[in-house]
Amino acid sequence: MMTECLDGRPPGRVTPAVPHGVLNVSKPAGWTSHDVVAKVRRLLQVRKVGHAGTLDPEATGVLPVLLGKGTRLSAFLLHWDKEYEAVLRLGQETTTQDAAGAIVRDCPVHGLRPETVHEAVAQFCGEQQQVPPMYSAVKIGGQPLYKAARAGKTVERQARPVTIYHIEVRTLSLPCVTLRVRCSKGTYIRTLCADIGRVLGVGGHLSQLTRSRVGPFHLDQAWPLDDIGRVDDLFEHPGVFLSLDEALADLPAVVVEPAMVGNVLNGTPVSDAALWSEDHRETSVETLIRVKDDMGRLLALGKWAPSTSYAPKRQLRMVKVFAETSLPSHET
User: Fold this and answer.
1) What is the dihedral of CA 272, 276, 278, 281, to 10 degrees?
2) Mean pLDDT for the stretch of residues 209-215
């Protein structure tokens, strides 16, 4: 009988009908992230499919696709950093900050010195304030910015904090500069390229983009969209699929004693006395914690509830429950 398996792995030699987790897909150019989700849903015949981290249609590279209960992970994967290979075309500004837009400014670049370009790029390492581009899905007043942009409107946007952990010039052959960027969530590489061009005084836009890594997913292990076949194949290729627990592996974990599993599944807080952990990382009330049973299955995510005079003992409250309210002895 086909079964669901919360850790995403087949129990014994039986392949689960629904693999719950995150799939590492290589998105081709010309596809929207929604297109990729629709094709994966059709190919794998999985009803619940989503994605984490939108890629523009002409961009290529790693697109994490969420399967089954993996769709519940989206908000908890935002901490994953990203790496990109980007080609900045200096001397041209466009309406969309990338090659899809109309050119609105053309400026010669023959006077630029290589060291000047390197110095300008280096300025963008570290914490930055970045204004979201008009052609983006950011909502202001309940409407995505791109809808206002298509109507010929410009909306005032507030700068948002992002972090560029690493940026380097890989190749320099004016007017093109190939960059490697490692950055935080919410960073627009289009805007980064436009901002570098602005600092150099000649303008610029993103002409090509490949996302080479998202969190633990690397492009050289990503599953090409045309190669996606059966659910069975998920478990044949290292780096292609992560179970719920594996996707959240950088979070600390606790094990709940068997008598308290029902409380966890019902979303009821559990006393510290009913939990044990070999993970000695310090955790605060803001820390997300994996809650597992004594068989290693991920049950939920929790956070410590602040102590009060009514509840002096530390309790773990459930933030998101992944397992069903009934757990058979050998499968979920």
Assistant:
1) -20
2) 97
Q: What is the DSSP letter of 195?
A: H
Which residues are the active-site residues? 56
Tokens of 87: 């080609």
Give the Cα separation of 321 and 263 in Å (integer). 11
Kindly calculate the radius of gyration of the chain based on its CA atoms and give it in whole angstroms. 23
Query: What pLDDT band is residue 147 in, cutting at 50, 70 and 90?
Result: confident
Structural domains in the chain, CATH included, are 21-79+216-246 (3.30.2350.10), 82-214 (3.30.2350.10), 251-321 (2.30.130.10)
User: Which residues share a beta bridge with 162?
Assistant: 128
Per the CB < 8 A criterion, the answer to whether 269 and 314 are in contact is no
Element (H, E) at 169: strand 160-173
Average pLDDT of span 299-321: 82
Pick the more confident residue, 56 or 109.
109
Q: What is the spatial distance between Cα 206 and Cα 100, in angstroms, rounded to a whole number?
A: 9
Tell me the pLDDT tens digit for each residue of 40-85: 999 888 889 999 988 988 999 999 999 999 999 988 888 899 999 9
Three-state secondary-structure class, residue 109 = coil
